[in-house]
Structure formats: structure tokens, C-alpha cells
Design goal:
By secondary structure, the chain is an alpha+beta fold. It has a domain at about 90-230: Pnp Oxidase, Chain A, CATH 2.30.110.10. The chain is built from nine helices and 14 strands. The strands form four sheets. The protein has a seven-stranded antiparallel beta sheet, covered by helices on one side. Strand 9 (about 195-210) and strand 10 form a beta hairpin. Helix 1 (about 1-15) runs antiparallel to helix 2 (about 15-30). Belongs to the flavoredoxin family.
Amino acid sequence: MATVKYSAVAFAAGLGLSVGAALSFYLARKASRSAAPKIWGTQPHPGWEPPKKLPVPPAIENGKMVAIDPRVIGGKKCYPLIISAVVPRPVAFVSTVSKDGQQNLAPFSYFTAMHDPPCVVICVCRAGHRNGGKKDTMANIDETKEFTVSVLSEWFLEQANHTCGNYDEDVDEMALSGLTKEPSLKVKPPRVKESAVHMECKLKHKYETKGYNGEDTATIVVGEIVMFHVNESVAKKTPSGSTYVGLEELQPISRLGGNIYGRSRECFDLARPDRDWQKR
């Protein structure tokens, strides 16, 4: 068994960094599935081979496309369209502190990440209830250049959702929702103890976006992760020794359109195509 394990690692390394890492991750996850909840299914069309066509639902096949010009309907009316079309989205639970020590906590689903250097990317829209002024999260990041991101999981979703109200500046959302503050190591904003994965971040870049009327409508924040915290119950190891987070244990929650959230209840593996396909 050990020979097979190390042969797989060597093979992964020979394929190159990205493909090798993906294979190593796949092997580790596959080995841990026997004791995991039954969320793993098969891919939608396991017998498919290129360049065969796959069946399209008749309603889609025969339906007409509706063209929508965002400049005609206006940026604000694009909101329900964009949040229901770009789904599912992960949720960043962002903790900040003002220069005067006032703490703030809020979830953001305009959120993604990159890995070298490890960074999170969050879009913080302007506050409609403050006549287009900055939300507390953005104001605090501007002042201190620091924040933390805690990953949202199912077991504390209702508490997390309770922090997203349009509260006054002096409200401590973490205390209001009953969540627990955990001190950070390299930044001042606390982490959310109930979360299984935390990232301490420092502002690396920011970019102001302007709406059709020329006014600032949002800020794209790039934060460099200066410290990870991963609960041992979700921390896993690939055969090559890299840490990853177990999907079954994390129970991540995603955001969909409107007030809809999603669970990861059925997942499947789908490998990347080999480069040799371009020669066939």
C-alpha cells in the first residue's frame, strides 16, 4: 500500500504543479470518504466522450434568449439579476475594527480568492441606507488596513445572518448575534471562534468602482492572508503533506439569489482533460 501511495505522489509531481496538486488532493479526499457522510455522487454524464453532444433540456433548447442591456435598466436593477445568475457564491464573514476600537462583523458574498501570495478578494458595495456612504466594514479597512475572514458553515448560519442588518455604527454585531470573539495573532480584528477556518488579512490593493452616474458604488478589496487558522477537525493532509480543508467536515454554506442559501449536499469528481486531447 505504501508503494502505491508514494508512486501516486511521484506521478503527481511529474505532471506539473497544478495538475499534481489536484491529483494529490483527489487521492487524499478519496481515502477519507469511507467514514464521511454520504454526499458523494457521480458526475452528470459519466459515459460522455468528446466530441459528442450532451442533451439540453427542451425548455432551454427551444427557449429564446432575452437580451438585457444593463445601461438601459440601470445598475441598481442589475442587482437581482447578477446575484441570481452568478451562483453559488462563497460567503466571507469579515471582521474589522475602527481606529477607535469599534468592532464590526458582516457577511459578504461578492467573494473569491487566489493562492500566491494567498489573498482574498471582496467587493464591498456602498450603503444604500447611508445615501451611498461607505459601510462600516470598508470604513474600518480604510482606517486600519486590516481585517479577518472566517469561513461560513452550516452550524452557525442563523447567527451569521443576524449580523447583516443595517445597524448603527456603534453596534457590535458579534455580541449582538451571540458569536464568540477569538483574538488574532497578527492583526487587531478578532476572528469568529465558531468558524472552523479563519484568515487574518492585511490590505494589499483596493479599487474603487464607479456607477453609470459617475459616483463610487463599491470597493474591490484585495487582502493578503498573513495567517491561517484551521480547526484540527477539518484539517486534512494530501499524500504530499499539504494541508487542505475537508468538505464533509466544513459543511460550507453558499449564497444564491435573494435570501436563498445553499448546502453542499451532493458532490462529484470531474478530472481535467489531458493535453493530448488537442492532438486528436
